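for the record, two folds in this file. i put them one after another cuz i was lazy. first one right below, seq on top, structure tokens after. the second one comes after a little note so u can tell where it starts
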Amino acid sequence: MSKTNKTELHDPFQIALEHENDYLRKLTVTVESTKVASERRRELTKIRKTTRIKGFRKGKVPTHVIEERYGPLIDERTLTALVNTGFRLAVEQHNLATIGEPVVSEVDYESGERLSFRVDVEVMPQINLVRIGDFRIERPEIEITEEAVGEMLEKVRSDRAILNPVERKPEDGDVVSVVIQAAPDSKDSLTETLSEEKPYSFEIGAGFAIPDVEDAIRTLEPGQDGTFGVSYPEDFGAETLAGTTQSLNIRLDDVRSKRLPEADDDFAREVGDFKTMDELRAAIEEDLLAHKKREADDIVQEKLIDSIIDANPFEVPPSLLSHYLERVLDAPDDADADRIEEARQSVTPAVERQIKKDLILENVIKSEGLEPSSEEFDQHLSEMGEARGLSLVEVRRQLAKEKQLEAVRHRLAIDRAFRFLGDRSEIT
């Protein structure tokens, strides 16, 4: 059920506000006849000053001639000016945080006599969080296995592997250098994508290239090339190629085998400030544990948000949803309309939840005064600088240069909001 604010007089505009729902506001504006007449005279005068008509000096064209020639234009400009002014005053008077474009309707205008109109506009929803705590949230168990430590150790060894050139066909684990180009008989979509030779370097068997490309490369020796039919997966990143079969010219320039360093104390000392492999393994375990804790924290936070959303239902303004969707999809102008709509439908629930999450956190930050003070923010930056070996001034300068200063401040406020919310629920 909508509610209507008491009509208020903002001379010479009379403005009434109705709450249609959580986010939609209906504004009814009536303009006094004297204002309508004066605004129309002003628009007529502006046109008269700049109009040239044969037989009259500039700015001296009789009013009735201007009326005869430009009457509809004068009315159009009068209407536009008064509607814009009325809407601006309504927004100021009722302190509306508008989003999206206003929709004007029910215009009742008589030239120089009267004007009334309706404006529908979306605003940031007024969230009333009746419950933000007393939830029971289960925290995921954290376990770091010897297998996980071993896998990470192997990755560290792989990152420091020695690459030796070999004169043979590539095998899993080899690093190859290839040049790929569309074959002359390729379809237009591929020709546009790979019209020029493109060099690539990657590890065979690591999933960097699609299967058909890897299979083709495995048939070549260094210095050889060939033309191959390649089928692109349905979910391939480039929409013009997804689900198609194309013809590629592939040249193999280089094959290098990987030789992993021995996992011994010498290797540990090479990796970092470690004396033994046991120390390196302990550090890897500590890093994995810290990562798992952050993952668990994230899961707890998302469960908290889900609980708050369920306990405090509210609507998301369509304009805000559309804005978020445009940022998420970021589709090119020539993208397939059906694919865009399919993607839109697919991501809409997640995007709508993200909006609710953002609005809830902003509400908690504001209502609980969780924005960091200047001193608290400087302390946070000092801690960041200490970890990076930078002074407060240096880390400030660096973040400002990267245009990340406000993002860091906001992230700190969000972290404080989550701590506030977590303290008001049972985390088991």
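(here's the note) second protein begins now
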Amino acid sequence: MSVKQKVNEFINSLQKEEENLFPYLANNNWRPGNPVYYSGPYWDEKEVTSAVTTLLSGKWTSAGEQVNKFEKEFSIKFGFDHSVMVNSGSSANLVMIAALKKYFGWKDGDEIIVCACGFPTTIAPVVQAGLKPVFVDINWDDLNWNLDQIESSITNKTRAVFSSPVLGNSYDLDRLIDICEKNDIHIIADNCDSLGSKWKGSYLTDRAVAASCSFYAAHHICTIEGGMVSSNIREVVDIARSYAWWGRGCYCVGKQNLLSNGVCGKRFSDWLENDTIVDHKYVFGVRGYNLKPLDLQGAIGQVQIEKFDDIHRIRRKNKSRIQSIFETIPGVRVINEKKESETSWFGVPIICDDSNLKRSLVSYLEDNKVQTRNYFAGNILLHPGYRDLGDGTKYPNASKVLDNVFFVGCAPVITSEMIDYIEEVITNFSKS
């Protein structure tokens, strides 16, 4: 019996003894009155077995062959030529923007168009790379960015638009592509919330020069933590890997480039200008970071890829049912996907007609242990760390998000019984 089989057998025996061993599983023993979390890892014994087996292998604990396999499988699944895994989705954005700046030769002060409403780590990497974020407001109907404002914001210094679809739901991608092509600028995709979302049958990232993804527990794929940078341009991914791996210029990954002990197969070469022979892995081309993932995370990711189609299907199913429940409340509207879309929903976006309704509804849900979330930062320019980047009053819809918008989860860990309970809670709220 292999080590993996022995570990699996042991975990199965624990499951029989401890019925709540995996509390986030879809077949858990949740009961009304227990918390309904908005998300959580959709795992079973397969993920745990893969992680433990990797730890017991005695091989390198940081990014190694399991991470390399996951990078390849992720690329194949989501239509990329190349990918590099890092320690978080935020780190993915950081090294992706830095890599694009270096690859295209962008200068300090060049402009990247961003949405004023969303998560800060779509904005911070732009500033950290020495680039200038140019903000646009959102539309109130779907909370996605205003495409008219994107078009009017383009200058001779604009290099790209940094896209982040609201909770996975697409804007009019055809029009954005048209705007970018006419102006010779790139689409960069923050795909952390929208993994698996499609527009006219193709992934939202198909026309992006590069895309990021998060594997935090709330996201579609969970590897404990983690992120990915993907592109069809190999050098972009190589540079991103360099930034994530201390800045070294060695991009040697995979069995074709590594010796059996994990050492670079091109170990010694003339890398420095004076022809000094230096270990390939210790030539540093950029000032980088240490943002490497763990190999066990790569092992977990491989199992999650196998489950992704089910994850996508359940998220869509849960969103549809939860939407029908909230739409029974007067003054509440739930965002729909466009007819051209197939959204892999991160959450169920709920818009209230006024702030008092939002406050009372959120308070009632939380009091009844149904977890809610604001739509992230709302207007990022209203936050202390970002006020110096622009005048927040110029983006009224983004500001309105904090008062009127929230979301609840639709992740696969939310079972039919939990949704029944949410319906009961909403019914009681309406009566009150």
